[in-house]
Amino acid sequence: MEFNATLIGEMISFAILIWFCVHFVWPHLTKAIEERQLKIAEGLNAAERAHAELREADNKAAAEVKQARQQATEIIDRAQQQANQILDKARTDAVAEINRLKAAAQDDIASMAQRAREDLRERVGALAVQGASKIVQREIDAAAHKALLDQLATEI
Amino acid sequence: MASEPQGGLTEYIQHHLTHLNFQVGPNGFWSFHLHLDSVSVSLGLGVIFCLWFWLQARKATAGVPGKGQAFLEIVLEFVDGQVKDVFHGDRRFLGPLALTVFVWVFLMNAMDLLPVDLLPWVTEKLHVAHFRAVPTADVNMTFAMSVTVLLLVIFYSFKAKGFGGYMHELFTAPFGKWFAPFNFALNLVELVAKPVSLAMRLFGNMYAGELVFMLIAGLFSAGSWLLFGMGVIGYAVWGIFHILIISIQAFIFMVLTIVYISMAHDHH
């Protein structure tokens, strides 16, 4: 068989076939391939992202727990301080009240003693006058000797 | 453009339908022939298939695949999906078998898309007169594959049901033990029909496709520019249509292989 137009015709047709494949078959293939690549890349990215997010959430949770613990200790400290303050204030208040009550009681005692003393003085004065009148055996003019008697009462 | 008599086309087609025959052994009863063209092309394509997939598999990554790996993954997933649909067992053998059948048959069918005179023209320069490029248009090739499938069917029947179980099924299904010879004959026909239909379908499609290419190619040397142009267009259109046929035939061969072997696992 010699080389003739048959092979040329077939080669032209083959070129058309290749052109067809390049324009109508190949794009579908590459599209499918690229879609698959994209899907896998997205999947891997999503997994990576989820992993990172999980790690971040873990870190955040740990930090929050730590912070909460710190806050709790702070609150406890402050509460203790406050309790101590309240206790101190109550103590000082109580001491002041005691002192105040004591002073008032002392005042009362002092004034009562004073009154008792004055009462006693008056009665002693009266008794002295009675006794003196008995001794003199006559009526003393009370009005005339009142100044004298008052002086006597103050001296007692 | 050499104008040839009508006998030219017949001669042309006959020439193209002659295999590269290689006689092994002395003349006479004990000699047999090898179609060296079918053997060499199919082996070559098999080697290309193995190297291609092996090299890609070696550098496969679990990350974002390259374009080559993504393509193979798509093919692999498609074949595995087909196997999964039909066969509900251990796919470690049937999966690779289906993949091999599909890709190999597809590649061999794809040789049909090459210009029908291209490889013969090349081999003629090497002083080889006859060369048929499409191994699947050789009935020996298709029967070689389908008989292998038949042997696998028989092997898996024994493996899945045991010797006794398979014999029992051969002789008692579908009409019960009183029709044992009839059942056996029926099952034998069914068994033989599988490889015959498998091989003849593929062979017939590819042979007919090749023949149509040759008939259209006859227009190229018919002697007028009009016929030459019609030939170019017809050859291209048939080639485009043939892309569909070679894919479908490879797919059918693969699916039927899976179906036959998974049927061997089923108990009646």
Automatic annotation (TrEMBL), chain A:
The protein's name in its UniProt record: ATP synthase subunit b
Keywords assigned by UniProt, alphabetized: ATP synthesis, Cell membrane, CF(0), Coiled coil, Hydrogen ion transport, Ion transport, Membrane, Transmembrane, Transmembrane helix, Transport
Biological classification of the source: Bacteria, Pseudomonadati, Pseudomonadota, Gammaproteobacteria, Lysobacterales
UniProt-annotated location(s): Cell membrane; Endomembrane system
CDD domains assigned to the protein according to its UniProt record, in alphabetical order: ATP-synt_Fo_b
Segments passing through the bilayer: 6-26
Membrane topology: Single-pass membrane protein
Any coiled-coil regions, as ranges: 40-89
Originating gene: atpF
Quaternary structure note: F-type ATPases have 2 components, F(1) - the catalytic core - and F(0) - the membrane proton channel. F(1) has five subunits: alpha(3), beta(3), gamma(1), delta(1), epsilon(1). F(0) has four main subunits: a(1), b(2) and c(10-14). The alpha and beta chains form an alternating ring which encloses part of the gamma chain. F(1) is attached to F(0) by a central stalk formed by the gamma and epsilon chains, while a peripheral stalk is formed by the delta and b chains. F-type ATPases have 2 components, F(1) - the catalytic core - and F(0) - the membrane proton channel. F(1) has five subunits: alpha(3), beta(3), gamma(1), delta(1), epsilon(1). F(0) has three main subunits: a(1), b(2) and c(10-14). The alpha and beta chains form an alternating ring which encloses part of the gamma chain. F(1) is attached to F(0) by a central stalk formed by the gamma and epsilon chains, while a peripheral stalk is formed by the delta and b chains.
Function: F(1)F(0) ATP synthase produces ATP from ADP in the presence of a proton or sodium gradient. F-type ATPases consist of two structural domains, F(1) containing the extramembraneous catalytic core and F(0) containing the membrane proton channel, linked together by a central stalk and a peripheral stalk. During catalysis, ATP synthesis in the catalytic domain of F(1) is coupled via a rotary mechanism of the central stalk subunits to proton translocation. Component of the F(0) channel, it forms part of the peripheral stalk, linking F(1) to F(0). The b'-subunit is a diverged and duplicated form of b found in plants and photosynthetic bacteria.
TrEMBL record, chain B:
Keyword Transcription regulation: no
Membrane-spanning segments: 32-55, 93-111, 139-158, 211-233, 239-261
A Pfam family of this chain: ATP-synt_A
Signal peptide residue numbers: none
Membrane keyword on record: yes
Major location category of this protein: membrane
Record's subcellular location: Cell membrane; Membrane
Recorded topology in the membrane: Multi-pass membrane protein
Keywords assigned: ATP synthesis, Cell membrane, CF(0), Hydrogen ion transport, Ion transport, Membrane, Transmembrane, Transmembrane helix, Transport
NCBIfam families: ATP_synt_6_or_A, PRK05815.1-1
Stated family: Belongs to the ATPase A chain family.
General function of this protein: Key component of the proton channel; it plays a direct role in the translocation of protons across the membrane.
Protein's name according to its UniProt entry: ATP synthase subunit a
Species of the source: Dyella acidisoli
Name of the coding gene: atpB
